[in-house]
Fold this protein.
Amino acid sequence: MKKLTQTNLLRRLGGAAGAVALVLGAISATAVAAARDPQYAAALAAKEVGQQVDGYLGIVGASNADLRRMVDDINIKRKAVYAQKAAEQHATVEDYAFTSGCLLIAQTKSGEMYQAPDLSWKTRTGAPPLRDSRCP
Amino acid sequence: MTQATQQQGWSGRFAWGGAVMLMAGAMMPAGCISVSAPDKPIVIELNINIKQEVVYRLAADAEQTIEENAGIF
């Protein structure tokens, strides 16, 4: 009887620990989602990457394996998000991505790179960015 | 007398109308714009407007999506 209670207690403790771990995991996941990866932030600041018209991240200058891997990783994640949200809105992935591209270019900070409607890379200044006429 | 004058007046008006019509007729060839059918089929680009409508519809949702996934945007 006593042995059984002890096991029960352990189980409960285990359950509690699991719950705490879950909550901690959720918090750290939120933290990851909220901030840019340091490599991404550094590449953006160094003008190695920029926001493309089509809603994806692009390599501005010379490419290298590390940069390519990071950009591909971000773009795969972006596409997954675009695809899910586009389906919810009954729109095409391309249209959703394009709309996001409009907003992302508008949100660039001074000194960051973005793609103009003619697909050339531009450095964002204090002035509004050059955007597609279809942008909201 | 009055009747005759009036009749003369009417015919005068008709004469004027006729002259104006004649003049208009004479001027027609000069003022005419010749329209010829194009040899290529007429294409009306509707995609631009449709896309813009879609983009405006999606903007609010896309903005929220970017905020929620700030790490990859």
